[in-house]
Amino acid sequence: MAAKDHHEDVELQAITESDDEAAAVPQQERVVSKAKQIKWWLKVLTYPAVILTSQTAYLLLARLYYVKGGTSKWLSTTVQLAGFPLLIPYYIYTNRRHSNNQPDQNSAASNLTHGAFYVIVGILAGGNTYLYSTGMDYLPVSTSALITSSELAFNAFFSYFLNSQKLTPLIANSLFLLTVSSVLLVFAGDPTTDPRGITKAKYTLGFVCTLASAAGAGLVFAVSGYAFRRVLKAQSLSIVMNMLLFQGMVASGIGVVGLLASGEWKGLGKEMAEYELGTTSYVMTLVWIGVTWQVMAVGTMALVFEVSPVFSNAVGTVGLPLVPILAVVVFDDRMTGVKAIAMVLAVWGFLSYLCQQYLDGRQVQ
Predict the structure, then answer these.
(1) Which of these, 233, 246, 253, 280, has the minimum number of CB atoms within 10 Å of its CB?
(2) Number of domains comprising the chain
């Protein structure tokens, strides 16, 4: 009888241990899942901080170059784009890390398709950067930043045709507000306050170039989203790094060709010698323009990979109203009533757009 009771106790203990192990497995899975969620949220919080910080620094440095004596638009364009070699170590790391998890995309046709896409996006990026450099030369940085906020509206417009973006009332409201915000800035300009004597014609040219640059940037975002779904047919970190690196090669090549063809390179020695802050500051200003641009690009594409192109574009847009406030302090830009209204409309348009994205996200859940 004692032997029988002992046998039953052993069986009961075995069953209990088995149940404990079974209960432990889901618990471990929950811990791992929670850790992954925390890691994801840390990334989502970190990347916007990186974008907002680097974007603000880049805009102020780009304006500083012109205010203190810089004149070469092609040089400004080139240094923004020529920092792509900084991405090579991380590019190698991501390709090694993800090489075993990627589908076979080494066919000649696939490489040709990818290469064609990188060239197209690189050309667009090079052209957009030159247009933006022109606008930065002729406009106060506060005005330039507010016009650039219309990039979000252009993204929605092009995404409507390329990515079947829904034109909801909130999106339409965002497009309207951002358009009005940009148009108001036409009447906010006061070129006579510029110490370099920018004419009204140059101010208008700067406005048109900056608006065209915003349209081009919105097109690049929409095309990138289309390419991920229809051309590259993948959205991995290594694909994102490929796009950044090869796009940078093509775009910086355009900048170098433009610098040489325009003849602006001939006056760079004199420009450096006459720079108000000195030769060292001239070089460091250009270097940090390139560095901050690349940091902004990496943060933007990382957020595209982790969340979505729309959210990444929205983060970049929401940071632009910070620039006019800082420009008042750093460059003594005038914060006129029209500019203030334009800034409020730009933020309102962004919030309207973001609200629609939140509603879309809830429908997916």
Answers:
(1) 280
(2) 1
Q: Which of 201, 198, 211 is nearest to 149 (CA)?
A: 211
Q: How would residue 168 be classed by pLDDT, with cut points 50, 70 and 90?
A: confident
The answer to whether the CB of 224 falls within 8 A of the CB of 158 is no
70 lies in a domain? yes
Integer Cα distance of 354 and 171 in angstroms? 9
Q: Closest by alpha carbon to 152, among 295, 267, 321, 326?
A: 321
Contact 312, 303 (CB under 8 A): yes
Alpha helix positions (H), the chain: 2-67, 73-81, 88-98, 108-138, 141-148, 151-162, 169-184, 200-226, 237-262, 268-274, 279-306, 309-318, 322-330, 337-364
**pLDDT, tens digit, for every residue of 92-140?**
877 776 555 444 444 544 778 778 888 888 899 899 999 999 998 888 8
Residue 6: inside a domain: no
Return the SS3 of 201.
helix
Is the residue at 33 inside a domain? Answer: no
Alpha-carbon span 44 to 49, nearest angstrom: 9
Question: Please, where are the H alpha helices in 163-265?
Answer: 169-184, 200-226, 237-262
Domain hosting residue 219, numbered range: 58-364
Query: What's the average model confidence in pLDDT over 19-48?
Result: 64
Q: Residue 130 carries which side chain, given as an amino acid letter?
A: Y
For residues 245 and 84, the answer to whether their CB atoms sit within 8 Å is yes
Number of Cβ atoms within 10 Å of the Cβ of 172? 13
| Residue 254: exposure state from Cβ atoms within 10 A (0-12, 13-18, ≥19) | buried
- φ/ψ (deg, to 5) at 325: -65, -45
Predicted local confidence at residue 103, as pLDDT: 47
What rounded mean pLDDT belongs to the chain? 77
